[in-house]
Specification:
Layout: H1 3-13, E1 16-20, E2 45-53, E3 56-65, E4 73-75, E5 100-107, H2 109-114, E6 119-120, H3 122-132, E7 140-144, H4 153-157, E8 159-160, E9 163-164, E10 168-169, H5 171-180, E11 185-188, H6 206-213, E12 217-220, E13 231-237, E14 247-249, E15 252-257
Parallel strand pairs: 5-7, 6-10, 7-11, 11-12
Antiparallel strand pairs: 1-15, 2-3, 4-12, 4-14, 5-13, 8-9, 13-15
Helix pairs in contact: 5-6
The chain binds manganese (II) ion.
Manganese (II) ion (MN) binds at residues 69, 73, 75, 192, 220, 247.
Length: 258
């Protein structure tokens, strides 16, 4: 039997499961707040073109408006100044092979429950690799923080007087993953791939700076990471083919063996 027919048989038999790592996308989707000196990304609006009415008696469709970085979304290298001149750095030019890879899931839910600013350090990576093996080249590294359980905008963005608070990667961990492990990119449950306080780090937003400077990708606002094993799942994360796009909302799927 061919490899692909084995795949289809396993999906039909339920021995392979498709897990949706995507949040619903709509007017209630929270969007990152930047300081007012910067441009703001609009939230989602849906405007009906026609819905079985005089503008379209037999069809329903909408116009959608949103920033590229809204909801569960993909960050391309061109999103960041460090990646702006790399080859194949845009949503329309990234080779599609790079959208598919094995998942390595770092479970930090216990640490984040105690410290919402928790950073995943190289020591945490070493401990994970001692247990699960070396992060392979071409992996999607997913930070399972439990943050997707925060269902209100206020709890999800978690902005306080000194700015947003949410977990992320230590800069050196981002460097090791990008340069020494050669991953596809990192995915998180939070609104962005840097920690909430990372605007005040040196450099600011070190995960974006490091990952995109190495031609790697980001996935933000993921969910259902608790349904994935630490290793063994395969993630498919393909952004819209927006010409010159810096990223896009997308449907992120994981194939998981039962
Ligand atoms: Mn983004």
């Amino acid at each position: 039997m061919s490899l692909l027919s084995q795949l289809v048989d396993a999906l039909n038999a339920g021995s392979l499961r498709v897990v949706d790592l995507t949040q619903p996308l709509g007017p209630d989707t929270p969007v990152i707040d930047l300081p007012p000196i910067f441009g703001a990304s609009p939230g989602v609006t849906l405007e009906t073109i026609s819905r079985f009415d005089e503008k379209g008696p037999a069809w329903y469709w909408n116009t959608i408006t949103m920033g590229e970085h809204t909801g569960t979304h993909f960050d391309a290298p061109i999103h960041w100044i460090t990646g702006k001149d790399l080859p194949d750095n845009r949503t329309d030019t990234i080779p599609p092979r790079q959208f598919v890879g094995p998942a390595c899931v770092f479970d930090i839910t216990a640490e984040v429950a105690k410290n919402e600013d928790f950073l995943f350090t190289p020591d945490h990576l070493a401990a994970w690799e001692a247990k699960h093996g070396r992060v392979p080249k071409g992996a999607w590294v997913l930070l399972r923080s439990g943050w997707s359980a925060r269902t209100t905008k206020a709890a999800f963005l978690n902005v306080k007087a000194d700015g947003p608070h949410s977990p992320g990667f230590h800069q050196e961990t981002s460097r090791i993953l990008a340069r020494e492990r050669d991953v596809l990119g990192v995915g998180v449950e939070t609104v962005g791939t840097d920690a909430g306080q990372a605007g005040g780090f040196t450099p600011p937003f070190p995960n974006h700076t490091t990952m995109h400077g190495a031609g790697k990708f980001g996935l933000a606002s993921l969910c259902n990471l608790d349904q994935l094993p630490a290793t063994g799942a395969v993630v498919i994360a393909a952004p819209l083919k927006i010409v010159n796009g810096s990223g896009s909302p997308l449907r992120v799927l994981a194939l998981v063996a039962q």
